Amino acid sequence: MVGERSERAADRDDSTDLLEALLAGSHRALARAITRIENRSPGYRELVAALHEHTGSARVIGVTGAPGAGKSTLVDKLAATHRERGETVGVVAVDPSSPYSGGAVLGDRIRMASNVGDMEVFFRSMSARGQLGGLSMATADAVRALDAFGKDVVIIETVGAGQNEVDVVRTADTVAVLVQPGSGDDVQTLKAGILEIGDVFVVNKADMDGAERTVAELEEMVHRREGPTAGLDTGHHGVEVPGHPDDDPDRESSDGDETATTWTPPVLQTIATTGEGVDELIEACTSHADHLRESEALQRRDRLRYAEEIRTLVRSDIGDLATAELERRGGVEALAERVRRRETDPYTVADAVVEPIADCVDEARDGDD
Question: Residues 6 or more apart from 43 whose CB is under 8 A from it?
Answer without folding.
Answer: 11, 12, 14, 15, 36
